Amino acid sequence: MTKLRFNPDLMNVPLYVAGRSIQEIQEKFGLDKVVKLASNESPVGPSPLAVQAALEMMEEAHRYPGVADGVLRRKLAKKFGRGFTEENFLIGNGATDLLRMITQAFTFDGGNNIMADATFPMYHILTTTFSGECRIVPLDANHRFNLDGTLAAIDDDTRIVFLCTPNNPTGAIITQGEFDRFMRAVPEHVVVLMDESYHDYVTDSSHAESLAYVAQERNVIVLRSFSKSSGLANLRVGYMIAPAEIAEYVRHALMPFNTSDIALGAASASMDDDEYNERQRKTVLDGREYFQSAFADLDLQTISSQANFVTFLSPPMGSARLTELLLQRGFIVRELTMFGMKNAIRVSVGLPEENEAFVETLKNILETEGVAA
Fold first, then answer.
1. What is the pLDDT averaged over residues 15-34?
2. Angle (deg, nearest 10), helices 95-106 and 122-129
3. Which residue of 2, 199, 255, 280 sits 20 to 30 Å from the alpha carbon of 138, by its own alpha carbon?
4. Whole-model pTM?
5. Domain identity same for 168 and 245
6. Residue with more model confidence, 159 or 17
7. What is the pLDDT of residue 103?
């Protein structure tokens, strides 16, 4: 028995379980080909300009990161306008790194943070990590954020309200009207964190425009990511947009050299590749529409998604069993118990041929189980 003294609070922190890898499933089931539709990654890979920039930066791999952080922040400020400067931006080792910094910055002395019951698990994990109280507000009957319930949960010790739009794992959005009403009522001592990692896939014009509140210097922080639409998940680059005072405060939680110039150079280059950005977005939007229609044809209940995935509910044989049957046939999807949803599966959009093969396999499984439409 070890005599080391463990932190009991740390032992209470839930572990994040990542999606299973292609190599793992190949080895487990002896498969030559496995299609991963589990982690909301870009189906078309990274931009060629990003790859070239990363390769060029590799020549300086023996140096610590230098000016690329500032270059990217200035480029982002120019892109978003609204009077933003580089001081409104902070770069992280993925959006999760920024979530860690923000939660550490505001969750102290017994504070509580508010989040939905079915949303990105890192809000709960990080709040627990920094000894905060998690206040859980269930989604409504349509799997949307209950903002009235969220307001009712706020008290004097509330530090952060975590909102994810489009929400992971539902794909549902917060509308402009909903967000405006919420912002009129939210107390000034509360930080409203808008996780918009899937923003680039939104086509609904009613989606909340949170950056307007940042420009007004309200207590709003917006998170975006290069992992999804830019296809750079492995390089880990995310960014936050906030009033300069908040960004400067959160910077105190920044680890030295938290992102590499290789990753930052690739992220910056990806912003310049208009052809790639249009092509990957069209691939995802077409695939999302295909999944929504195909799942409906199989009598599977879906949630209308504005992200790069579609979630379906209550598969007849249960989500755990269906996930295992799909794995055996070479398809990795995300069973959503960890995300707070029972008997639900999230399917990331892949390439057209992958999407079609998945739907055909899913149909065959349902027919085998005797429950197909």
1. 90
2. 40
3. 199
4. 0.93
5. yes
6. 159
7. 97
pLDDT in tens, 127-145: 999 999 999 999 999 999 9
Domain holding 123, by residue range, is 48-270
CA max distance for the chain: 60
Note whether 228 and 42 are within 8 A (CB): yes
Structure tokens at 288: 């999302």
Last residue of a domain, one of 245, 270, 295: 270
Split into its structural domains, the chain has a count of 2
Q: What is the pLDDT of residue 371?
A: 62
Both 19 and 58 in one domain: the answer is: no
Rounded to the nearest angstrom, the gap between the alpha carbon of residue 89 and the centroid of all alpha carbons in its chain is 18
- Interacting residues of 327 by C-beta distance below 8 A, sequence separation 6+: 20, 25, 28, 29
**In whole angstroms, how far apart are CA 366 and each of 38, 311, 314, 318?**
20, 17, 13, 11
**pLDDT band, residue 2 (cuts 50/70/90):** confident
Helix (DSSP H) and strand (DSSP E) numbers for the chain: 14, 13
CA dist 106 → 149, 175, 220, 348 (Å): 22, 26, 13, 33
In a domain, 373, yes or no: no
Residue keyed to tokens 């912002």: 183
Q: Are residues 104 and 230 in the same domain?
A: yes
Does residue 363 sit within a domain?
yes
